[in-house]
């Protein structure tokens, strides 16, 4: 974990714009993207678990458990091995909070993607100084695109479909 912090700090402090420096920035960008995605998911999953435990605690007349907190470290699969990725607390707190708000249905998917991408843009441009920002929440973007595709297909073919049938996917 110390190596993850050192690697992040080294890349952030790079002054050079050499090919090696750009390559290091791009690799760190991929780790940051994976970290943000996993932190968003952790925020959603841990919030769901906390809501369930809190509901049971309230029903039993017991104190509500502490809210979950994000980790500055995420284990990322990198080829054949795992590596730890690090992001500063302010970033993980924001990503975790967006995931939690999404889970509580306080934030619709498009707004969650927009907020997470704004965070990714900040890291990409200001910390890593990348030419192009990395894109986060690809899985959620794909899910929304698939839903939109199904909706468009059902809207467009509804008059052609026999009553009561379900179109193939």
SSE arrangement, N to C = HHEEHHH
* Gyration radius, in Å: 20 Å
Beta-strand fraction estimate:
5-15%
Provide the spatial order of strands within the biggest beta sheet.
1-2
Poorly predicted ranges: 159-169
Mean pLDDT: 90
The largest pleated sheet is described as: 2 strands, antiparallel
For the secondary structure, the number of strands is 2
* Broad shape: globular
Task: Report the end-to-end length measured between terminal Cα atoms.
Answer: 44 Å
Counted up, domains total 1
Q: What fraction, in percent, of the residue positions are helical?
A: 55-70%
Q: What is the helix tally? A: 5
Structure classification: mainly alpha
Write the layout of secondary structure elements.
Layout: H1 2-13, H2 19-59, E1 73-78, E2 81-86, H3 89-103, H4 109-127, H5 138-157
Question: What does this 3D model show about the protein?
Answer:
The chain is mainly alpha-helical. The protein has one domain. 63% of the residues lie in helices and 7% in strands. The protein is built from five helices and two strands, in the order H-H-E-E-H-H-H. It has a two-stranded antiparallel sheet with strand order 1-2. Strand 1 (73-78) and strand 2 (81-86) form a beta hairpin. The model is unreliable at 159-169 (pLDDT under 50).
Briefly, what is this?
Helix content is 63%, strand content 7%. With 169 residues, the chain is mostly helical.
């Amino acid at each position: 974990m110390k190596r993850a912090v050192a690697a992040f700090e080294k890349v952030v402090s790079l002054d050079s714009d050499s090919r090696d420096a750009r390559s290091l920035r791009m690799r760190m960008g991929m780790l940051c993207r994976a970290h943000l995605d996993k932190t968003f998911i952790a925020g959603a999953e841990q919030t769901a678990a906390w809501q369930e435990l809190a509901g049971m605690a309230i029903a039993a007349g017991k104190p509500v458990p502490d809210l979950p907190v994000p980790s500055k470290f995420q284990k990322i699969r990198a080829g054949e091995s795992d590596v730890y990725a690090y992001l500063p607390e302010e970033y993980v707190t924001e990503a975790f909070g967006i995931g939690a708000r999404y889970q509580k249905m306080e934030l619709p998917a498009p707004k969650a993607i927009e907020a997470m991408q704004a965070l990714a843009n900040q890291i990409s441009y200001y910390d890593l100084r990348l030419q192009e920002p990395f894109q986060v929440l690809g899985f959620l973007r794909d899910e929304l695109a698939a839903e939109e595709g199904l909706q468009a297909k059902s809207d467009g073919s509804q008059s052609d479909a026999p009553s009561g049938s379900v179109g193939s996917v």
